From TrEMBL:
Record-level GO cellular component terms: membrane
Residues in coiled coil: none
InterPro entries: AB_hydrolase_1, AB_hydrolase_fold, AB_hydrolase_sf, Epox_hydrolase-like
Domain AB hydrolase-1: start-end pairs: 66-316
Source species: Flavobacterium resistens
Position of the signal peptide: 1-17
Top-level taxon in the UniProt lineage: Bacteria
GO MF entry, a single one: monoacylglycerol lipase activity
Gene3D superfamilies listed in its UniProt record: alpha/beta hydrolase
UniProt KW keywords: Hydrolase, Signal
Gene Ontology process terms (BP): acylglycerol catabolic process
The protein's name: Alpha/beta fold hydrolase
Length: 330
């Protein structure tokens, strides 16, 4: 009996030992070095003390323009490394927060996630840094957050950039509702192989290379931590937020110049395994969704990047950064 219990305890570690590149990481990534120095902002929200970590990188040739980079659900601020470097070279100060529940930031035991709350946290960070106006750039889930920020704080939003944002369609209209507990159990099953399989299928169209591997390993690293259940629970709450708080119905209300950067091969859509193949085929068609969204947002432009999936700034960096910098300098 004791041996069986020991094997059960060691099983997750034995699985990861099969892939020598998976570095065990704690749930706040204290043993993972970000590409630039990190600081944190103290927040008190919903009767909890939390720390919101961020990178703030100002170049020597600062042009007095600021860009805020908002990460997606399956990522954190670290994956903006090459984007930060390129924007700095062009003179932009770059602020990159890890939202609460992500990366190095706090993982609350219980938290009511709303895009409004995350937008308010982001505003508090900019207020703390003395930044009154910035371009807000959001990728994936970060695109939903960036949209909410621009709707709540148009006076602070100089421009808006949406890179393959999710939420361009309302999934709750076709995907059956699943409670938070269901998403939690699903997240507990995550490991490197499940993460890689998902990203290959939805992000990279079956392709894989060392650069994609790097970010999958980062996501997988903390699944080995004894406290990973906190990450899984926060992730489940975030699924609830994404499904129940769509922003697409308010695109028409955006008041700031907006750039859409869309990798047209992207097929990302939450909840696909829960619907029939016929319905799956109608979901996540970014070649169509990009055009539809551009028509919905006043004063917007669309840059399509062919043969590129969900992460243009990782998969097709040159095609991503060039139109971005042109837009920022207009």
């Amino acid at each position: 009996m004791k041996i069986a219990k020991l094997l059960l305890f060691l099983f997750p570690f034995l699985v990861f030992a099969q892939d020598a590149n998976i570095k065990p990481l704690d749930i706040n990534l204290t043993n993972y070095e970000y590409p630039y120095p990190v600081q944190f902002l103290e927040l008190t929200s919903q009767r909890q003390y939390m720390q919101m970590f961020y990178m703030d990188v100002t170049p020597e040739n600062y042009n007095n323009k600021n860009v805020v980079l908002l990460h997606g659900k399956n990522f954190n601020g670290a994956y903006w490394e090459t984007t930060i470097k390129a924007l700095n070279a062009a003179g932009f100060r770059v602020i990159v927060p890890d939202q609460i529940g992500f990366g190095k930031s706090s993982k609350p035991d219980n938290f009511q996630y709303t895009f409004q709350q995350l937008a308010e946290n982001t505003k508090k960070l900019l207020d703390h840094l003395g930044i009154g106006k910035a371009t807000i750039l959001g990728h994936s889930m970060g695109g939903m957050l960036a949209t909410r920020f621009a709707l709540m704080y148009p006076e602070m939003t100089e421009k808006l950039v949406l890179e393959n944002p999710i939420g361009l369609e309302d999934w709750k209209l076709v995907v059956p509702y699943k409670p938070v507990d269901w998403w939690y159990e699903s997240e507990l099953k995550q490991n490197f192989q499940t993460i890689k399989n998902y990203q290959m299928a939805n992000y990279y169209n079956g392709k894989w290379n060392a650069n994609y591997q790097k970010w999958a390993e980062l996501s997988a690293g903390w699944t080995t931590d004894p406290e990973y259940e906190k990450v899984a629970w926060n992730s489940a709450l975030l699924y609830e937020m994404i499904f129940t708080q769509p922003v697409l119905y308010e695109f028409k209300n955006l008041q700031v110049p907006t750039l859409l950067i869309i990798g047209t091969r992207d097929k990302t859509a939450l909840g696909k395994p829960l619907v029939s193949e016929d319905i799956q085929a109608t979901m996540g068609n970014y070649a169509e969704l990009g055009k539809r969204t551009q028509k919905a947002i006043p004063n917007s432009k669309l840059v399509e990047i062919p043969n590129t999936g969900h992460l243009p700034h990782i998969e097709s960096f040159d095609q991503f950064i060039k139109p971005l910098i042109v837009f920022l300098k207009e």
